[in-house]
Structure of Aldo/keto reductase:
Amino acid sequence: MQYRLLGKTGLKVSELCLGAMTFGRETSEDDSFRILDHFVENGGNFIDTADVYSRGISEQLVGQWLKGKNRDDYVIATKVRFAMGDGQNDVGLSRKHIIAGVEASLRRLGTDYIDLYQVHAWDPLTPLEETLSTLNDLVRRGLVRYIGASNFRAWQLQKAIHTSRSNGWEAFSCLQPQYNLLCRATEYELLSLCEHEGLGVIPWSPLRGGWLSGKFHRGMSNPPEDTRIAVAEKQGWGESWSKYNNEYTWQVTDALFEVAKQVEKTPAQTAINWLLQRQAVTAPIIGARTLAQLENNLGASGWALSPEQVATLDRASALPVTYPYDEAAEQQQRNGRQ
């Protein structure tokens, strides 16, 4: 596995990041440890979790796995923002909740520091200065090495960057957005903003919850019962069958199967490799409920789609755009002519 620098930092991370959201929810403790071991054996050093994943259980499992290992060999990322209790201050990005959150995460992870501490989403109730100054203090205290954001819109991210810069505070090193062949609106502004400001991009859900795994194809009338999509439909999750059972999805999966056959790789490997070749992307976050799923996903590295194959996937997954994102507006900005 190759290694890349995270944004403008000197931090080297594996080009695939292991997402631990399933740990303690869909994946048992033993299977979680096996997945972590296999990821590391294949060169991975970048592991992403969050306090809210199974209300802390995911962090606990990562922490138990870390015991007895050389902590500095791994880049551990976690997040804060969402509710961890029923109290009025058990949610959000206030100074109170962030400090309580980082202290609890450190206990669960069994470590003295967090490599990458990310705000899980925007908080409209807390002044941005309060959030960013608190994160800056955590870095200065040595509890956190780098900070990042997840699920921000472009204006929110730019405002945060400007606020940190104006005050001389530690700035975000990366963004964790949803980005995959079925979610390309991330390209409208977020990716170009990250490139311009030097932020790494670590996309979550590179297979859109399983839609790009190869298990779903045109002509299906419902999802197999043993898939995440079937669970998503019952739970009302974003990747539900009723939301994605449409012509656009089947157009994308048709192209994905076509290209996967050409390169003799699985659809999942092909979809992740497409992400690996996006200029702004540092490390897609691969989640796995089973060791077999992880093994499949790891096969996305070590090779590259041809420009023609990338173009095939680009065309199939292209979203209709209007001003100010269309080509005419782009040309206007490039050459100054109407």
About this structure: Residues 40 and 46 are 9 Å apart (CA to CA). DSSP finds 13 helices and ten strands in the chain. The longest helix spans residues 247-263.
